[in-house]
Amino acid sequence: MKWLLLVIAGLLEMCWAVGLKYSQGFTKLMPSVFTIVGMIASFYFLSLALKSLPLGTAYAIWTGIGTVGTVILGIILFKEPVDMTRLIFIGFIVIGIIGLKLVSAH
């Protein structure tokens, strides 16, 4: 359950990061509300996961999920550049997330 809570927190981080882009500096009401709600929900689920996961591991995985997902959504939604170097470094983040999960399996 703790890992599921952490994944939910990471997915919500992606949501609020994309919402932040759509809010245009908090000048658009609905995207701003979406962003703030996403932030609160993301921190809430992270706080639940932190009850039983090490802080460093949970934080790294949370930000890693958010980072990888936000890059993917940036490519899809905002036509951000896709190049091999960028994808390789995103792959390193994914490897790091998997590695942290494997060494924290208990």
From TrEMBL:
Domain of life: Bacteria
Primary localisation category: membrane
Membrane topology: Multi-pass membrane protein
Cellular localization per UniProt: Cell membrane
Molecular function per GO: transmembrane transporter activity
Swiss-Prot/TrEMBL keywords: Cell membrane, Membrane, Transmembrane, Transmembrane helix, Transport
Gene Ontology cellular component list: plasma membrane
Keyword ATP-binding: no
InterPro entries, per the entry: EmrE-like, Small_drug/metabolite_transptr, Small_multidrug_res
Regions crossing the membrane: 33-50, 57-78, 84-103
Family to which this protein belongs: Belongs to the drug/metabolite transporter (DMT) superfamily. Small multidrug resistance (SMR) (TC 2.A.7.1) family.
Protein name: Cation/cationic drug transporter
Origin species: Desulfoscipio gibsoniae DSM 7213
